[in-house]
Amino acid sequence: MPFINIMVNTEVTQEKQLAVKTKLGKAISVFPGKSESYLMINIKPECDLYFGGKSDTPIAMGEVKLFGSSTRDYYEKFTAEFCKIMKEELNIPQDKTYVTYQEIENWGYNGFNF
Which domains are seen in the chain, by residue range? Predict the structure, then answer.
């Protein structure tokens, strides 16, 4: 039950959104037991983001929510993949990309909770 929320301060074409979605769908499998089959992604282009007080360069903020928990090693692997995807597909420098993680104990889906 992963959810990835991405905010960027640049325009993102439909083609690029699909490329990001596809690559993140593969990257989520870094986490044991996670796959694209239950992955939900939100991509918000043209957000008012500032890094170091400036917004004159492409910036990305990613938020990843996982049902259950994981380890630092898997978070580091996913961070590397996330930053790589932002650079390759949206031309956002890795040093202008943040990603946070939240572990969720209770996750509702299809009328019930896990």
Answer: 3-113 (3.30.429.10)
